[in-house]
Amino acid sequence: SSSSSSLYGVRISHNMCRLLRCRCSPPSSGVMMMAKRDEELKEIRAKSTQEINEEIVDLKGELLMLRLQRSARNEFKSSEFRRMSKRIARMLTVKREREMEEGVGRRLSRKLDREWKKNIVPRPPPSLIKLREEEAAAEAKESS
Question: What sign does the dihedral 91-97-99-104 (CA atoms) show?
């Protein structure tokens, strides 16, 4: 049994794709990503709402650090932007699902979200804290 793809409405078998050098995805590639996403969602749903809020703040800080690195033209992994943005979106989705289970409407949800954002205490992202600790350890090693 040969699997097939559709290109402009024309069905093409994967054997033909190899001949045409198309960039058709192999039949099992979608299954792997789905399982990984489901695992991540299970991991997020296992956390409390407070832990999700904490991680959202940390990830947004990391995203800011990436933007700063990009603007300073430093080396960085561009794939991290998409990965972090998607993780933040998944966390916000789980947070909203929980609000819906509690019967919180959209308008009240936005109001609560604004209040939560006002109460966030600014703090450096984990990667910056780690970098500072490494620099401090290097200085301590040099001075001794």
Answer: positive
